[in-house]
Design a protein that fits this description.
The complex is a heterodimer of chains A (113) and B (116). Chain A is mainly β and 113 residues long. Chain A is built from no helices and nine strands. Chain B contains no helices and eleven strands. In chain B, the strands form two sheets. In chain B, strands 2, 4, 5, 6, 9, 10 and 11 form a seven-stranded mixed β-sheet that branches. A four-stranded antiparallel β-sheet of chain B has the order 1-3-8-7, with no helix packed on it. Chain B is globular and about 40 Å long. The chains are: A mainly beta (113), B mainly beta (116).
Chain lengths: 113, 116
């Protein structure tokens, strides 16, 4: 399973765009890249997932270069409620529900007023 | 979207008590569920993989007799912490996969277990 590396912490201000980069140098061909958000005393919440190029949904964008050895989660115009820990994970493509994920320490994002 | 419900959200009990935590997939069937433990300021650590209709698969260092897992139906997995001690105090989280091979895992809101 691929290991990921993220900054331990980041600081931002309300209204700014925040980009969190994750390195996964030994990502496998069948691995997807998934980002989760976790608030204190809550379970992780799915943000976005991608395989290559760019993926966008209503809350974030995910940029993946051609070599797939890194990815960048982009949060547009953050608010105070975006203060959380953000995890980048890569996991094997498996049939059905069998996706064993290895979690790193994540990036603790603090959004200031 | 897929919803995973975990109950109870918080448990405080005396040392030696056994505690059962339930994890339910509310709008999809899950042949596999995962149980994690998270200590303060640390990441999620996978404890075991719960398989419907068969024995759970435990990660190295996790005592299977201590953490009993039952996955009797496609929508319910339970984790029982037997004879809990203060060192078992932690945040326990379950997850279940979405339908489809590349669908993300969905997580319950966790159970804060405090053993006095």
């Amino acid at each position: 399973l691929a290991k990921t590396t993220q900054p331990i912490s980041m600081d931002s201000y309300e209204g700014q765009e925040v980009n969190i980069t994750c390195s996964h140098n030994n990502i496998a061909t069948n691995d997807y890249i998934t980002w989760y958000q976790q608030f204190p005393s809550q379970g992780p919440r799915f943000i976005i997932q991608g395989y290559k190029t760019k993926v966008t949904n209503e809350v974030a964008s995910l940029f993946i270069p051609a070599d797939r050895k890194s990815s960048t989660l982009s949060l547009p115009r953050v608010s105070l409620s975006d203060t959380a820990v953000y995890y980048c994970l890569v996991g094997p493509y498996n049939a059905g529900n069998n996706r064993k994920l290895i979690w790193g320490l994540g990036t603790s994002l603090a959004v200031n007023p | 979207g897929a919803v995973v419900s975990q109950h109870p959200s918080r448990v405080i009990c005396k040392s030696g008590t056994s505690v059962k935590i339930e994890c339910r997939s509310l709008d999809f069937q899950a042949t596999t569920m995962f149980w994690y433990r998270q200590f303060p300021k640390q990441s999620l650590m996978l404890m075991a993989t719960s398989n419907e209709g068969s024995k759970a698969t435990y990660e190295q260092g996790v005592e299977k007799d201590k953490f009993l897992i039952n996955h009797a139906s496609l929508t319910l997995s339970t984790l029982t912490v037997t004879s809990a001690h203060p060192e078992d105090s932690s945040f326990y989280i379950c997850s279940a996969g979405g339908q489809g091979s590349n669908q993300p895992q969905h997580f319950g809101d966790g159970t804060r277990l405090s053993i006095l």
